[in-house]
């Protein structure tokens, strides 16, 4: 009985926390896995489920575009810029911890958005190496491995958020070509590039945002807003497609932009990002915040833990009950002068899942004693109950035999219950 109880607990823990392909990293908050094929920041990471693929390695995360050079900050200027932008496409397989290449996208871009819809990966907006907005909508067919450019979106923003619901593509916020911040929310037809306006963000304009979709709500957190480039936002709001209504949520503990987001087991996470010091130099935000959302779509942000390496402008994808962090930029390096670009892939396992995996690995000490006592009580109770049922049946049979009269009237009993019944 005890082994059966522990086996059931282990099976439940496995269902809750996933496969855990990375060994000891299941018990660590952050761990490095396979490095990316190239160093880059400001790309997109899009998780695609395993149902499309024929092998057993699970979902992929597709990385497309990005800045492949260190971000250069001229001494005589108040801005920094990317020197090289790529169209490279790679995908990461978490089940095997490896990368493979896919065909390059038709257009190089960074600071763009990407969504997965109808077995296609769609790239939207962003900027090229000359800081022009990219209007071409590039579409990658995940089944054929081929790219197409079905249309051009003249108002495509950079640094916007994007999400999908009911096969509709939504794009929210970002920066127009002249860096005007936007509050707009539109649906985009990826074949014709026709748009339709929906309710704008009530908190105002903002760019440098990501969108996290969870439980029919689409969350937008932080960013730079209202044309204020000196102060990042802590604002969090979510959009419901069915009602076309935005809901305000508690502010994050720390204001940030260019952060990464993930959702696991009903909890929302904002990871890293940047803020500014003296309205000039970007400072990485080196922590993870968690929002537990209650039944009223409210909750409380908590600082969960620190990131071991300061970074921002990286991207994230939630896969197999872990959050993978890709690339990004590090702290200011005077020797560049600017911000170095990374090629690292980092696995983040939130505290809740680490605790479940620890439970799966076995119970020791006081926990084992407690479980053993509970199992003993259950087994003892079952034994006593079985004895009582057996005694009751024996007593009932004895009463029946005593009550039956002897002689011919009892022949039916012999006929229906004896071993030679016809």
Describe this structure in words.
There is one protein chain. The protein is α+β, with helices and mostly antiparallel strands. It has 2 domains: 2-360, Kelch-type beta propeller (Neuraminidase), CATH 2.120.10; 365-417. The protein has 4 helices and 30 strands. It has helices spanning 2-17, 351-360, 365-403, 411-417; strands spanning 30-32, 44-48, 60-64, 71-72, 89-93, 98-102, 113-117, 120-124, 136-141, 146-152, 161-165, 168-172, 185-188, 195-198, 206-207, 211-214, 217-221, 224-225, 236-240, 245-249, 260-264, 267-271, 274-277, 281-284, 287-293, 299-306, 315-319, 322-326, 338-339, 345-348. A 4-stranded antiparallel beta sheet has the order 1-30-28-27, with no helix packed on it. Strand 13 and strand 14 form a beta hairpin. The chain is globular and about 95 Å long. The two termini are 43 Å apart.
């Amino acid at each position: 009985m005890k082994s059966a109880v522990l086996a059931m607990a282990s099976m439940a823990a496995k269902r809750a926390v996933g496969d855990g392909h990375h060994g000891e990293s299941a018990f660590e908050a952050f761990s490095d896995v396979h490095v990316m094929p190239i160093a880059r920041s400001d790309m997109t990471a899009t998780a695609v489920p395993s149902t499309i693929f024929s092998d057993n390695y699970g979902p992929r995360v597709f990385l497309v575009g990005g800045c492949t050079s260190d971000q250069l900050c001229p001494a005589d200027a108040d801005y920094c810029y990317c020197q090289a932008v790529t169209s490279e496409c790679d995908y990461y397989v978490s089940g095997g911890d490896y990368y493979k290449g896919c065909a390059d996208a038709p257009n190089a871009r960074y600071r763009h958005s990407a969504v997965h819809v109808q077995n296609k990966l769609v790239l939207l907006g962003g900027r090229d190496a000359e800081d022009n907005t990219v209007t071409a909508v590039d579409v990658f067919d995940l089944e054929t491995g081929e790219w197409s450019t079905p249309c051009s979106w003249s108002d495509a923003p950079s640094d916007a958020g994007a999400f999908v619901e009911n096969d509709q593509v939504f794009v929210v916020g970002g920066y127009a070509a002249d860096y005007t911040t936007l509050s707009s929310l539109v649906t985009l037809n990826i074949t014709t590039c026709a748009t339709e306006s929906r309710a704008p963000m009530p908190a105002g304009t903002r760019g440098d945002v990501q969108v996290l979709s969870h439980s029919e709500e689409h969350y937008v957190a932080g960013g730079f807003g209202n044309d204020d480039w000196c102060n990042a936002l802590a604002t969090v709001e979510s959009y419901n497609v069915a009602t076309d209504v935005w809901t305000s949520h508690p502010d994050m503990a720390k204001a940030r932009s260019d952060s990464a987001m993930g959702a696991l087991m009903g909890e929302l996470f904002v990871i890293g990002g940047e803020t500014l010091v003296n309205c000039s130099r970007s400072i990485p935000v080196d922590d993870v915040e968690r929002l537990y959302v209650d039944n009223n779509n409210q909750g409380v942000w908590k600082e969960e833990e620190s990131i071991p390496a300061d970074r921002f402008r990286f991207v994230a994808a939630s896969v197999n009950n872990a959050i993978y962090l890709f690339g990004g930029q590090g702290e200011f390096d005077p020797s560049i002068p600017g911000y170095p670009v990374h090629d690292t892939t980092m696995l983040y396992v939130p505290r809740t899942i680490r605790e479940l995996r620890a439970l799966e690995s076995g119970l020791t000490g006081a926990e084992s004693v407690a479980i053993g006592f509970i199992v003993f009580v259950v087994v003892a109770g079952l034994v006593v109950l079985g004895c009582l049922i057996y005694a009751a049946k024996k007593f009932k049979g004895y009463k029946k035999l005593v009550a039956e009269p002897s002689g011919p009237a009892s022949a039916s009993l012999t006929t229906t219950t004896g071993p030679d019944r016809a």
